[in-house]
Write a structure and sequence with these properties.
It comes from Devosia yakushimensis. Keywords: Signal. InterPro entries: Quino_amine_DH_bsu, WD40/YVTN_repeat-like_dom_sf. This is Zinc transport system substrate-binding protein. This protein is mainly β. Helices cover about 5% and strands about 50% of the residues. It has two helices and 34 strands. The chain has a four-stranded antiparallel beta sheet, with no helix packed on it. The chain has a four-stranded antiparallel beta sheet with strand order 4-5-6-9, with no helix packed on it. Strands 10-11-12-13 form a four-stranded antiparallel beta sheet. A hairpin with a 6-residue loop joins strand 26 (about 295-300) and strand 27.
């Protein structure tokens, strides 16, 4: 019996070690690039720089991803719809490791229609889309969308009027904007908290000229003309106001990004400044002067202490968010002036693991910068006017 048990244990050990021997660590990253003029998205494999596929849209789209990295979402404003493309990369979390599954990217048939979609927000596995032409927020589970069911269960939150608004899912609750017409702007003047039955809870949380929201860690921030609204809590959200300090010059934040790995927010503040925000600090706001006007900026989820800013002189800057200083700069493109319409084709940034991708629409290129050396590694040619860009991917084990 003891000999039989020893044989059984040996066999199991051999099976286990054989399984481990056939396990490989794999890193896979893909870029998805939307064209400025054509209704299409190009998927690029960063391991080979090859085009995997080109996906048609119904109108030019603005692209978004979520922490799951399983899909790319295209807000097609002119076509009055939001569509999705499966990234083909899925990482299963097993606690001590993640299993990665890599497949071809493909269109997800389910799309959500409505009048003039603009803002896309993901929060804890739920997605909120705000349709400015209706003043209606539509909320959906990302899992349901990824399952590809054409008949998505959609929760609708009607606000009081069409406006340039936003909604934030919050478990059974939601935060959504309210519009008070003042003859000058279609931007909202505050938010309400809604319960699961879409009933308003409490009074309006005032936030004049509201525009911009982001989540970092367990904090969500919403930008106002007077400061930030800070939302926290695991049940009904608690909302407080963080005013701009008197030390800041005249201005306000209207675009917010949330740090990953480190809890902070990065916002625009005037044409040639940005502001670092840590709501937990007594001096919550740190103003950073840029060498010239800002075109685009992004945070680095892989190297949490860094963020990146592209300025109109064609330079990409590495910002150390701990010191609040620009650490490195590199010239990537010819100048892209910020004069003229806001919607002109200008570079956009995406971070893909250890690489930073920057579109160069007028040259038909995507520049790839090595994040460690902060030097140009290579260029990828993309037909048309490569404009909005997102990255999807990660690392895991294959068996």
């Amino acid at each position: 019996m003891r000999y039989s048990s020893l044989l059984a244990c040996t066999a199991l050990t051999l099976i286990a070690t054989t399984g481990l021997a056939h396990a490989d660590d794999v890193t896979a990253w893909r870029l998805f690039v939307a064209d400025h003029a054509e209704a299409k998205v190009t998927a690029i494999d960063l391991a080979t720089d090859a085009t995997l596929d080109t996906f048609p849209l119904e109108s030019p789209g603005v692209l978004y991803t979520t922490p799951s990295n399983q899909a790319v979402y295209a807000v097609e404003g002119a076509a009055n719809r939001v569509s999705a493309i499966r990234s083909g990369i899925e990482i299963e979390d097993h606690g001590d490791h993640g299993d990665i599954h890599v497949a071809a990217p493909e269109t997800i048939s389910a799309a959500i229609s409505g009048n003039r979609p603009v803002h896309f927000v993901e929060h804890h596995g739920q997605i909120a889309l705000f349709y400015d032409g209706e003043g209606v927020a539509r909320l959906v589970s990302e899992k349901d969308w990824l399952d590809g069911d054409d008949k998505l269960a959609i929760r609708e939150i009607p606000t009081n009027a069409p406006h340039h608004g936003v909604a934030i899912p919050w478990g059974d609750y939601a935060i959504a904007t309210d519009f008070a017409p003042n003859g000058e702007t279609t931007r909202p003047q505050g938010v309400y908290v809604y319960d699961a039955q879409n009933a308003k809870l409490g009074d309006l949380h005032e936030c004049p000229l509201l525009h911009g929201e982001a989540t970092s860690g367990n904090i969500t921030a919403i930008a106002c003309a007077t400061g930030l609204l800070i939302a926290t809590g695991s049940g009904e959200p608690s909302i407080t106001h963080l005013p701009y300090p008197a030390s800041l010059p005249e201005g306000n934040v209207s675009t917010l990004l949330g740090g990953v790995g480190l809890q902070y927010f990065l916002g625009n503040y005037g044409a040639d400044k940005i502001v670092l925000i840590d709501p937990a600090e007594a001096d919550a706001f740190r103003l950073i002067e840029l060498p010239t006007r800002r075109v685009h900026f992004a945070v680095d989820p892989q190297q949490p202490k860094f963020a990146y800013i592209f300025t109109e002189d064609g330079k990409l800057h590495q910002l150390n968010v701990l010191s609040g200083r620009i650490a490195k700069s590199i010239t990537l493109t010819e100048p892209y002036s910020m004069d003229g319409e806001w919607s002109l084709p200008r570079p956009r940034i995406a971070v893909a693991g250890g690489e930073i991708a920057v579109t160069d629409p007028l040259k038909g290129l995507v520049h790839i910068v090595d994040a460690a050396s902060f030097e140009l590694d290579r260029d990828i040619e993309v037909a048309g006017l490569p404009y909005n860009i997102v990255a999807a991917g990660g690392s895991g084990t294959t068996h």
